[in-house]
Amino acid sequence: MAKEIGTRCIHLEEEGSNHYGAISFPIYQTATFAHPGVGQSTGYDYSRVQNPTREQLEKVVASLENGIDALALSSGMAAITLMMELFSPGDHLIVDADLYGGSVRLFEQISKKNGISFTSIDCCCEEIEGHIRENTKAIYIETPTNPMMHVTDIAKTAEIAKRHGLLLLVDNTFLSPYFQNPLELGANLVIHSGTKFLGGHNDALAGFLVTNRKELSERLRFLYKTTGAVLSPFDSWLILRGIKTLGVRMERAQENAMAIAEWLKGQKMVTDVIYPGLAEHPGYEVMKRQARGFGAMLTFRVESREFALAILEKVKLIQYAESLGGVETLITYPTTQTHADVPKELREKNGITESTLRMSVGIEDVKDLLDELERVFEDIKKEMKH
Ligand SMILES: *Cc1c(COP(=O)(O)O)cnc(C)c1O
Q1: Sign of the CA dihedral 70, 123, 342, 200?
Q2: CA 313, 314, 316, 321 torsion: positive or negative?
Q3: How far apart are CA 94 and CA 139, in angstroms?
Q4: Ligand 1 mean position, distance from CA 24 (Å)
Q5: Known catalytic residues?
Q6: Nearest Cα to 118, choosing from 97, 145, 95, 141?
Q7: Span 165-175, pLDDT tens digits
Q8: How far apart are the C-alpha atoms of 126 and 129, rounded to whole Å?
Q9: Is 168 in contact with 158 (CB distance < 8 Å)?
C-alpha cells in the first residue's frame, strides 16, 4: 500500500541501504567515485551523472508526484531550459499567456532564436484545439498561473493533447505535489521550481522535471547528463530537508492565505482579490476537483499605483522580495519585478496592472500578518487622507 503524501515527504517506500543508521540522509560531497575494478562501478561514477544524495532527493520528488523518474537541476529555469531541449527547430508549442516571467523570457528571447515558435493563449478559458498546427508538439501550462491565478482543467487539456499526439507539460510550482499531481490527471511532464514550496526556506535554488513515461525519462536523463545543470549534493540535502515539512507548511500557509484573502476582501482600497480558494474565483470548482488544496499564493489589486507602491514601502514583517513558497511571507510587484521582461502589452492584456501585487503567504502567526496589513493600510489611508 502506498503511504499518504505527508508520510512520503519524510519516508521513501523503500528506505534503501542503511547509512550506519543515519536518520538524515548523508551529503555525499564528492565529484567522483572510485571503481572497484576494471569495468566495475559502485553504481556511481561521476556526480554530474548521479550522486547518492541527489538520487535520494529525486526518488522523493518522483514519489510525491507519482512519477517514475525525477531529475534535480540547479534551478527551475535550468529545468525548463532542459525541457526545451526536447524540441527541435521548426517545432511549435502552445503556451499559457500568463506564466512565470522567466519562462516567458526563455521562450521569447532564447527558444525563438533556436527556431521554436509559440502561440500564447489563456489555456484556462480559450479554445485550444483551433491553435494546434501540424508542427505543434506540446502544450505548456501553469495552474494556477503566475501571477493571475488562472486555473486550467488539467484532465481536459490532457485529453486534447492526447488526441493530437502532443505532450502536456505542467509547471506545478504554485501548488507543489502536496496539493496537486498533474501526472495523475494525464500530464506527461511536471516542472517544479524547487526553490519555492519544495525547499520552502528561501535558502537554496533547485528545479525538477518529473515524468511517468519511460521514453521521456530516458531522453531527459541523456540531455541532463550531457548538459550538466545538475543540483549539488549540499543543495540536494537542503531540499530533502525542506520537503520533510512540506505537508505542515502547505497546510499552515494555505490557512494563512485564506485569512488574508478574506481580510483583503473587506478593504475599501482593495479592488480585486484573486485567490482560487475564494468561492467566487472562476477556477474554484476546477481546483476543488483536481487539487487537494488552494495553495498560499494570492494576487490583489488596490485602487491606485501609489497605494500599491506605498504598501511595498511600508511592510516590515512581510518583506518586499521576489520568490515565493518559503516560510516567510513575501510581497512583490510583478510589473517591475517578476514580470518586468514580459512585453508590456502582454502584461497588460493579462491584467498585470501597476496596482497589482502578488503575495506569497508564509507560516507566521496569522494575527501578526493581519496586524501588519492593518497598520500598513491605516498608515497609507492617513497619508492619502482617505
Ligand atoms: C520561480 C519559478 C520558476 C523558476 O524557478 P527558479 O528556481 O527561480 O529558476 C518557474 N516557474 C514558476 C511558476 C516559478 O514560480
Answers
A1: negative
A2: negative
A3: 5
A4: 27
A5: 48, 100, 171, 196
A6: 95
A7: 999 999 999 99
A8: 9
A9: yes
Cα(100) to ligand 1 centroid in Å equals 7
> Does residue 205 line the site of ligand 1, with CB under 6 A?
yes
Indicate which atom in ligand 1 lies nearest the CA of residue 142.
Answer: 13
Residue with cell 491584467: 351
- What is the atom index within ligand 1 of the atom nearest the CA of 77? 9
- The verdict on the CB of residue 55 being under 6 Å from ligand 1 is no
* Residue of 318, 360, 363, 354 whose CA lies nearest to 336: 354
- Look at residue 271 and tell me whether its pLDDT is greater than 90: yes
Indicate the residue type of 202.
N
CB of residue 128 inside a 6 A radius of ligand 1? no
The rounded distance, in Å, linking the Cα atoms of 38 and 98 is: 53
Q: How many CB atoms lie within 10 A of CB 117?
A: 15
Q: Among 161, 181, 24, 192, which Cα is nearest to 94's? A: 161
The SS3 call for residue 191 is: strand
Q: What is the pLDDT of residue 262?
A: 98
- Ligand 1 center–CA 292 separation, angstroms: 22
